[in-house]
Design a protein that fits this description.
The structure is a single chain. The chain is of the alpha/beta class. The chain has five helices and three strands; from the N terminus they run αβααβαβα. It has helices at residues 3-12, 34-37, 39-52, 73-83, 106-120; strands at 19-20, 61-67, 94-99. Helix 1 (3-12) crosses helix 3 (39-52) and helix 3 packs across helix 4. The longest helix has 15 residues, at 106-120. The relative contact order is 0.18.
Length: 124
């Protein structure tokens, strides 16, 4: 899935998934590019959707990433930083990785997937 869809699934279908890998994009739940334009409102809506379903911070993990030279970083980074300010999100359940030199291309996608794979399949 792409990042916009991944954020949508986190918001509306958390009962089906516990781990998310949004790459190169923010949530558009409030408006297009909402993570960059309205990060506080966007993240509050995501948090409210999660808590309304009675999920807690240890019920899900997000491994977000983007290329450092990808234009979508300018909407994704503000959203992630805003999310970390809310109690439901923390450094354990919301990790953010920048692919240094990565763009919005398949080479960066591969690096981001390899990075996420290490998190998804580590021993717990």
């Amino acid at each position: 899935m792409g990042a916009i869809t991944t954020w949508f699934v986190l918001e509306y279908d958390l009962k089906y998934f516990s781990e998310f890998v949004p790459m190169a994009g923010d949530s558009w739940t409030v408006e297009n590019d909402g993570g960059g334009i309205a990060p506080k409102v966007t993240t509050q809506k995501l948090a409210k959707a999660i808590t309304k379903q009675e999920y807690k911070e240890n019920d899900f993990s997000i491994y977000a990433s983007v290329g450092s030279d990808d234009g979508t970083r300018f909407s994704m980074s503000p959203q992630i930083k805003s999310m970390w300010k809310l109690a439901i999100f923390n450094q354990d359940n919301l990790q953010y990785w920048l692919d240094k030199g990565g763009n919005h291309d398949i080479a960066s996608v591969i690096k981001q997937l390899i990075h996420a794979e290490k998190q998804l399949f580590k021993e717990r």
